[in-house]
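FAQ: What does the model actually see?

It sees only this:
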Amino acid sequence: MDTLKDRVAIITGAGRGVGRATARLFAQEGAHAVHFGRTASHLAEAISDIARAGGQALSIVGDVSREADVDALFQQVMDSYGRVDILVNCAGIVAVRPFVEMDVSTWDAVMAVNLRGTFLCCLKAFQLMAVQQHGVIINFSSLSGVKGVEKFPGLSAYNVSKSGVAGLTEILAVEGQPYNIRVCAVSPGAVDTEMLRQAAPHLKAGMTPGDMAEIVLFLAGDSGRMLSGSNIEIFSNR
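And it is asked to produce this:
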């Protein structure tokens, strides 16, 4: 359907996992996929995959938790393309630490990437999209941040950060309406990624990064236009 053809999409955490799969699929659908992540070698591999398939992509190294890096990201994208149509906030980290052993530096590190990083990228995108009078923002929360879903010991910082992402998404969807900006979140369960193996190795993954990327593609395209404000909870089983 080419719903993303020529659209400019920034994907954070694009060096591996769901971010990488999403960026690859977006490029296959004709988008200008901007890969943002902290590890240059991972981004280079991702860009090479897309180039071999004939897709278009741009790689920018940086840390979502650093305001200067986020500012530089959006400035480079604007210099290259003149607009930002889609932002997908995939960047995230996890730290497994029993709360009785929690230290402030670990807590702050998780919050910095998962919540502050999402906020910083949303802020820049929102400001640009408000001027454009259009845009789509998709944030990654998690079932770990959803009330009533089973929680696992040691993930307090991760759970709280993802609850914050869900709350941020909800209010941005409201404030985005006058500017034709739609904002939604996805809250997947067990996805077959390195993060899952680190956080909960006992869990059996119910979906692959590619499966998750297909859902993000639907939300980013015109077919997802009625889902602004939604937090899509994905209870996947194979």
